[in-house]
Amino acid sequence: MRKSSIRRTCAALAAVTSLALAATACGGTTKEDVKDEGGKAAAAGKADPNAETKKGLTVGFLPKQVNNPYFTVADKGGEKALKELGSSYKEVGTSSGTDTAGQVSYVNTLTQQQVDAMAVSAQDPGALCTALKQAMKNDIKIVTYDSDTNPDCRNAFISQASADDIGRTQVQQMAEQIGNKGEIAILSAAQTATNQNAWIEIMKDELKDPKYKDVKLVKVAYGDDDAQKSFQQTQGLLQEHPNLKGIISPTTVGIKAAAQYLSGSKYKGKVKLTGLGTPNDMRKYVKNGTVEAFELWDPAKLGELAARTAVALASGQITGKEGETFTAGAMGEYTIGKDGVINLGKPTVFTADNVDQFNF
Ligand code: RAM
């Protein structure tokens, strides 16, 4: 075979099969060849908490949606942490929150580029699995953050807070604001979003408590984390349900659009709105009386923890098994929980009293 056709065959092999395999068959150097002791222990399935933190790694961030201010802040947190750790950051992603095929192709691109780890926020739990498993076969560590895939398709999931904490508190806040009585609706993101769907299930469960017997969930609408669609969905909810007393929107894009609609309408202050928003987006709606309280975590910390977990995995300090611990820089020590889940902490509730203390 002539050299050029060997090269072509190798490139084709790399595109369809395990990159490590293709590189070996074609005489290339794989990441296996350059692995240190910590890496070997991890490859054997064992964590070595004393392994040195590797430098010079590349971690690719694939958010649910680029240009969403929430992910801009989260990914910046990841970038800053990687810089501190002496590793590199790159970000790829789709501008729509419902472009699952686009996300799959970005996973494949990062695999072909042989990054050391990926931090992925999944638009759909199952859709990325095949591509992520292929990446893991190529010794690329996978961390999901914000929105998970299935546990066997990644090494660890960085959860912003427990789904229980996030789901129940939103219902509690809404019920309090409407005096435990009346029709409510949910304005979510994409219909497939793992995180929002997990929180909605918990909200429904919370609503089963007899103390909410007079609170009725009449509809779950989807704004796809698209500002215009979320705005229109809010308008639609109020037209369809004239007795609506409140909207819970567990998405930063949704709550902002709903607040925008309500604050310019006759419903301002009458139809209550709570959910998950950034203080910078929501400040003006708190001040003008559209919103009393909403919550969130610090997205930059979520991104930082995703980056530090990715590096700990790639360094062999952890493998993603329950009970393993590692130090995430100044953020302190974290323990991996059931199904490889690492919890960032508890969400913060923002009201007129504290919203000015936060800048994200
Ligand atoms: C949006 C996204 C993200 C979610 C936040 C609260 O930005 O849907 O996944 O965690 O809202």
From TrEMBL:
- The organism's superkingdom is given as Bacteria
Q: Localized where? A: Cell envelope
* Keywords from the named record: Signal
Identify one Pfam family in the record: Peripla_BP_4
Chain ranges of the Periplasmic binding protein domain? 59-317
Secretion signal, residue range per the UniProt entry: 1-22
InterPro entries per the UniProt record, alphabetical: Bact_Solute-Bind_Prot2, Peripla_BP_I, RhaS, SBP_2_dom
Q: Which SUPFAM superfamilies match?
A: Periplasmic binding protein-like I
PANTHER family on file: ABC-TYPE SUGAR TRANSPORT SYSTEM PERIPLASMIC COMPONENT-LIKE PROTEIN (PTHR30036:SF8), D-XYLOSE-BINDING PERIPLASMIC PROTEIN (PTHR30036)
Instruction: Name the chain's protein.
Output: Rhamnose ABC transporter substrate-binding protein
Native organism is: Streptomyces ardesiacus
Name the gene for this chain: rhaS
